[in-house]
Design brief:
The chain is an all-alpha fold. It contains 11 helices and 2 strands, in the order H-H-H-H-H-H-H-H-H-H-E-E-H. It has a two-stranded antiparallel sheet. A hairpin with a 2-residue loop joins strand 1 and strand 2. Pfam families: MPAB_Lcp_cat.
Amino acid sequence: MSRVISSTGYAIGPKILDRLVETNQFLFDISYAPENLIPGKGVGWKAILHVRRLHSQVRTRLHRLGKAHPKYYDIEKLGVAINQEDMLMTLVSLSSLIWDIMERRLGVTMSTQEKEGYLHLWRYTGYLMGASEETLALMATTQKADATLESLKMHLVHHNTTTGKSTATMVRNLAAKPIISRPIETIGGILDPFTSHMALIECVTTRE
């Protein structure tokens, strides 16, 4: 996965802040309210399909470049870019890993119902992104999602020069740079989506 990310050049240079802000906005769009996922008009639904289109473009680009220049992206060694396993890793990282970190690092324990609901959100997101039924079956329950995450850690997570470079670049470009340049207003304790979005835009534009 790190090779795919580095090949796009979007997460290893000065644009890393833009990438993180866009990811934050994506998470906000799909999880803020149920109506955001209404097919055809929900902002979250549209955001998911937009990401699916971007994934398709990256996959096609790297496939063509890999055929012409194997040293740039070795398809035989690395496999199809953004494949089912890559998507599964992303889905369980944004579900199982989240509640694991909340419990171990923050002392916040989600109820079984909350975990199941949050996992359902990511299964639906995966479905819209093109994850197969076989892939989604590996996160059918919270227990399966936890087990799948541990299995994928063993298979996909390992240190190499690419991940080291990406991490170093991220730290260097984000050092002493707040993600939000001003406080975000809330409505009844919930983030106001318009104010949040404008604050994020302001943050990005002031970096340019």
